[in-house]
Amino acid sequence: MSVQMFQRGGAIMLKTVRWSGWPLLAVVIGFIVTGYATSGRYGMGKLIDARTAMAVHKLLHLPLLVLLLVHALPAMYLAVRRWGLFAKASRIKCNPESQT
Ligand code: HEM
Fold it and tell me: Between the chain's N and C termini, which has fewer beta carbons within 10 Å?
């Protein structure tokens, strides 16, 4: 893999992490609010009635899971890359003459 492709891949991953973080935050807040509203705890019952809260809460499971994966997987990939693990692996595969 060329250096440009490696860097471009990283930039796309970072954009993905940053863009997905905000809808994920909204979904997590919605999940918590609707979760507590089903039992009327912490005053959340005043915001939304229990039946609607339960219906919305159930609907939020899939977006939560998808967004969490879209956010966390590239974040973890970038962390592993920052630790230099891929660089070490690519040093083995790359042309040794081009390495300093
Ligand atoms: C439901 C839980 C989570 C929520 C609501 C959340 C939300 C966010 C938000 C709002 C940002 C800021 C995005 C920006 O700078 O524009 C962010 C950044 C970040 N998140 Fe999460 N996140 C969650 C879970 C995770 C997990 C599980 C990981 C790692 C496995 C993770 C890794 C990161 C990283 C590394 C950044 C910084 C990206 C950067 O700017 O360099 N997050 N997150």
Answer: C
